[in-house]
Design goal:
Number of domains: 2
Number of strands: 4
Bound molecules: zinc ion
CATH topology of the largest domain: Helix Hairpins
Shape: rod-shaped
Oligomer: single chain
Strand content: 5-15%
């Protein structure tokens, strides 16, 4: 049985490599999140523009109704002047009063809609401002990320080289087993023992196994199969 094999350096390199790779994977996800915010902003803008268009169409329609109503009032005024009896006069007078009310309602509605147009335009301006900020932030972030990823790729390469060196401590007899674990669990294929327990699954080692691991004999955890070592 091999002893005095120090696996802590190997585990350190595994963890460093994992950290670098995690950082490399996280970057594009963070850019994507910013792209999603931009897409949401564009969707908000499109919805607001649609609402603005509908509001303007409604104003046009109400303006047309108002014109019709005003023409009708003019006509009623003429009829009123030409009324040949008191009865006719009263009828026109009442119609004029009713039509004046509906004209005034239309005018109020148009004013309200014009206010809404102002509000929507203001909101569209705010959306455009926010979007410009998001875009600038996204572009700056992506640029910084690119610069950082050059360094990270360099580190990844260095760790990969160190890993090959550190892996030389793995005895030939367990190399295939170790390789399978690395494929399955990556950096978590190794586990330090902590207070007589496997730090991956927290199952206590038998005293015999504990002595074995502490003596530097590569040993797989009987519970979670991780390659255990005693931290130096
Ligand atoms: Zn375990």
């Amino acid at each position: 049985m091999l002893s005095n094999v120090d696996l802590s350096g190997l585990h350190r390199v595994h963890l460093a490599l994992k950290d670098v790779r995690d950082q490399l994977a996280r970057g594009p996800r963070l850019v994507k999140a910013r792209d999603n915010q931009l897409a949401q902003s564009d969707a908000d803008k499109a919805a607001k523009e649609g609402e603005l268009k509908q509001t303007r169409l409604l104003i046009d329609r109400k303006n047309l109704d108002l014109k019709t109503s005003e023409a009708k009032l003019k006509d009623l005024d003429r009829k009123l002047n030409e009324a040949s009896s008191n009865v006719e006069f009263d009828i026109f007078k009442r119609q004029i009063a009713a039509d004046q009310v509906s004209s005034s309602v239309l005018q109020d509605e148009i004013l309200e809609l014009l206010d809404k147009v102002d509000r929507l335009q203001k909101e569209l301006g705010e959306i455009a401002e926010r979007r410009a900020k998001l875009q600038a932030d996204r572009d700056q972030f992506a640029q910084e990320l690119e610069a950082k990823s050059v360094i990270l790729h360099q580190q990844e390469l260095e760790h990969a080289v160190s890993l090959t060196t550190e892996e030389k401590v793995i005895p030939e007899s367990i190399r295939a087993h170790y390789r399978r674990l690395v494929d399955a669990y990556g950096a978590d294929s190794l586990a330090a023992i902590d207070n007589g327990m496997c730090s991956n699954c927290h199952v206590s080692l038998t005293p015999q196994l504990r002595v074995q691991v502490e003596g530097g004999t590569p040993t797989f955890c009987s519970s979670c199969d991780r390659l255990m070592y005693s931290p130096k």
